[in-house]
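PROTOCOL LOG
Step 1. Enter all chains and additional molecules of the complex.
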Amino acid sequence: MTKIHADVEALRGLRETLARFRYDQRDAVGRGDGEIEVARGELEARASSARAWLERCRAEFEACQEASPASSDSSAAMDDCSGLARAVAEAEERLEHVRRWQQRVEQEASSFYGVAMRFRDLLDSDLPRAGDQLLDMITSLEAARRVQATGS
Amino acid sequence: MTQPRPDDDGDYQLGLLDAAWEQAAQHWRDDRARDFERYHWAPLRQEFRSYLDALARLREVLGAAERETGI
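Step 2. Run joint prediction.
Step 3. Record the structure below.
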């Protein structure tokens, strides 16, 4: 490559790099959204599982209370069902724990979507304009070289 | 929950962009070059860096959510 064409080649290289970057990153941004959807699905499945477990614990606890004779010593009845009461409390805490993580993921996803949208806009609108500007520059440099070559 | 991606290495991508820009900037130093840097190049780098940082934070939270809720 002669020195006089080095600028044109460098601009061409920059334009091609930007075009490749745009192609790769548009695909990548879409996959980022996909990761969030997968995470949401898995967390919802875990929340559903935790809800089902809580309902089962509650049902067993209620059955235990109903089975305890009303006329019997109430503290003895509580002792009989205390293990199930603890299981209900633990199941409630487990479900709440999953819900808190669902909220945390939604907050982070919302923040990510904002940044990703700006980046996607840049890829879709600004980068093509930048590529066009580089092409104009390359074209005008090549035209000037042709004029110089013709005139020399 | 998160899968490895071939384009994970954002710094590598940034390096490719920087190398191409530096090569062009050696030969292109007029007002149009300065405008290009100001209105296209700098915003591109900044938005890409912000995107990579947001993606890293997101994946950290998704990974933690997976670990912490693995019942």
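Step 4. Note key features.
Chain A has one domain: 3-147.
Chain A has a mean pLDDT of 89.
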